[in-house]
Amino acid sequence: MGTKQEADVRAYLIDEISSSDVERARHYLHQHAEISAVEDLFWLELPRDLLRGIHLAHLQCQPYCVAIELGRHFVRFELLVRSRANHRCGCSRYAEPEQREFVIRFAEALIQELSIRT
Prior knowledge:
There is one protein chain. The chain has a single domain, classed as Alpha-D-Glucose-1,6-Bisphosphate, Chain A, domain 4, CATH 3.30.530. The model is unreliable at 1-5 (pLDDT under 50). By secondary structure, the protein is α+β, with helices and mostly antiparallel strands. The radius of gyration is 14 Å and the shape is elongated. The protein has helices at residues 4-7, 19-32, 54-57, 97-114, and strands at 11-15, 34-35, 41-45, 64-70, 74-78, 80-83, 93-94.
């Protein structure tokens, strides 16, 4: 189990970015994440080898994803791992350390590949 500080992390936020960088991030997410039915919300699927505990046991709820939200001047990566197949199931859990690292690496790749100024 992680430290208390690690357990309190609920989202990874890239904020105070320009509108043009948000538009470029939107294009990037259209190519590298799944588009949601909600405008400016995307899904990033977690690789199966990063699933743990209840997520492995709930085969009917796979795949598991984290939400990515675009705002006027931010990109927010929610660190809640949730089912894409069954939103009503209680198997949503906050990301384990290696799952958080996966999401943060994705976010940092977005920043680096698009040369977003933060």
